[in-house]
């Protein structure tokens, strides 16, 4: 209702979105969050905070309403597809965003990766640390030709040589594949994670079957 919209507008102002001529922009952002809350059934205040942090972490510093709305639509789609709460996906996304961006993974890719982990009940910090470490190790193993390349290649069911070629051609593709495979593997407590040191950050709760 109007009260909810007013509260959201006030919240955006408190979060430092206000600037000269920003009233229309804040109103559009608040509308996006209200729509997101309606679609997910989650708390609008928490979603607004999460959306702002993630949008800014992925380069939408000034919170452009069109990009913000597109991000909101992607979030609804991803959280529904995976069955994870949008709030949890955002909490995880903001943790891995800086490194994922450097790795060439876009906003939608980050949301997809985050949803896979959020569904397992990850808190976003432990697992995002593991993902950050993995991305750094992966780059180093490809560039320096260390044996770890074989571990990453096995996760996405290919050879070390093919993995290297894929990575050099487009690092974001193999990184996405590895991360998604890891999320699935963690769900089954898969042993392929041991060589990567990623089996430590286990789910906080057991996912329902």
Largest sheet: none
State the helical fraction.
55-70%
- Find the structural class using helix and strand composition: mainly alpha
* Secondary-structure element string: HHHHHHHHHH
Q: Please state the average pLDDT score.
A: 80
Provide the gyration radius in Å. Answer: 19 Å
Q: Count of DSSP helices?
A: 10
Number of strands: 0
Measure the end-to-end span: 37 Å
Notes on the protein architecture:
- By secondary structure, this protein is mainly α.
- It is built from 10 helices and no strands.
- It has helices at 2-14, 23-40, 44-57, 65-82, 86-102, 107-118, 126-144, 148-155, 160-169, 172-187.
- α1 (2-14) packs across α2 (23-40), α4 packs parallel to α6 (107-118) and α5 packs across α6.
- The radius of gyration is 19 Å and the shape is elongated.
Question: What is the topological layout?
Answer:
Layout: H1 2-14, H2 23-40, H3 44-57, H4 65-82, H5 86-102, H6 107-118, H7 126-144, H8 148-155, H9 160-169, H10 172-187
Give a concise summary.
The protein has ten helices and no strands.
Search tags:
about 210 residues, mainly alpha, 10 helices, about 0% strand, about 70% helix
């Amino acid at each position: 209702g109007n009260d909810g919209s007013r509260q959201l507008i006030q919240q955006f102002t408190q979060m430092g979105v206000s600037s000269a001529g920003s009233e229309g922009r804040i109103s559009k952002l608040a509308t996006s969050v209200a729509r997101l809350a309606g679609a997910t059934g989650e708390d609008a205040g928490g979603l607004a905070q999460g959306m702002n942090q993630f949008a800014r972490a992925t380069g939408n510093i000034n919170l452009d309403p069109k990009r913000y709305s597109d991000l909101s639509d992607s979030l609804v789609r991803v959280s529904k597809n995976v069955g994870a709460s949008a709030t949890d996906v955002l909490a995880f996304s903001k943790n891995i965003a800086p490194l994922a961006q450097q790795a060439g993974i876009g906003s939608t890719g980050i949301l997809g990766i985050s949803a896979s982990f959020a569904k397992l009940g990850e808190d976003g910090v432990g697992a995002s640390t593991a993902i950050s470490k993995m991305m750094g190790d992966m780059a180093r193993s490809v560039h320096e030709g260390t044996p770890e390349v074989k571990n990453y290649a096995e996760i996405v069911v290919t050879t070390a040589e093919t993995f290297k070629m894929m990575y050099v051609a487009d690092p974001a593709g193999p990184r996405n594949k590895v991360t998604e495979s890891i999320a699935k593997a963690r769900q089954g407590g898969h042993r392929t994670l041991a060589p990567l040191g990623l089996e430590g950050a286990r789910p906080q709760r057991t996912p329902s079957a």
